[in-house]
Amino acid sequence: MSFITSYGNLESSLKKMIEIKKYNELSEEVKNQLNSYIEDEFGHIAIVKETEWAAPNWTIIYYDNLQIVTFYNIVEREITIDTKNYRVSGINNLITPKEFRGMGYASKILKETENLIFEDLKCDMGVLLCADDLIPFYEKLHWYQIDCPVYFEQSNVEKLWKGNIMVLTRDEKMNPDKIELNGLPW
């Protein structure tokens, strides 16, 4: 499954598009560019440097004039919330390069690809691990914070996530007692 969505008339659609592609099908050049943005944005943060992360299944890139103006990754996974399993899209590394910030690209890409999570990937919800200062941004896009212990794996040891977790659901809000990511965090 690979998607390209263009916006506007033919001329502008050649300039602005959202590409949804399996991560392992990205060119090495694109992977290197994305990894450079990730390192610039998060490489200095202790928890990021100290944690082993899951490899993404999908990458969603918003291009404007053939430049990457924002992107994020999805890790598909079945997680356990309380005692029930849910199929989720774990949102990872939503990044807008500094020169493109404040133009609404990150909000647009998340809104435009929301159906990817629920319809195309057939997930029960979106889940993301989030820094404190980003909570208001995601709340504007109907994500909500969950306050419960979240467990994940690291070198075959279960650890407790010490940051925030947010979810996007189509139905009622959840208020769980415990979440197990059943693998590496994303």
Describe the structure.
With 186 residues, the chain is an alpha+beta fold. It has helices at residues 10-13, 28-42, 46-50, 105-112, 114-120, 135-140, and strands at 3-6, 16-22, 58-64, 67-81, 84-95, 125-130, 144-146, 150-154, 157-160, 164-168, 179-180. Strands 1, 2, 3, 4, 5, 6, 7, 8, 9, 10 and 11 form an 11-stranded mixed beta sheet that branches. A hairpin with a 2-residue loop joins strand 8 (150-154) and strand 9 (157-160). The protein is globular.
The string of secondary-structure elements, in order, is EHEHHEEEHHEHEEEEE
Number of helical runs?
Answer: 6
Largest sheet: 11 strands, mixed
- Summarize the amount of helix as a percent range: 10-25%
Distance between the termini: 21 Å
Note the beta-strand portion.
35-45%
Identify low-pLDDT runs.
Answer: 6-13
Going by helix content, strand content and strand pairing, the class is: alpha+beta
Number of strands: 11
- Principal-axis shape: globular
Average pLDDT number: 92
Radius of gyration: 16 Å
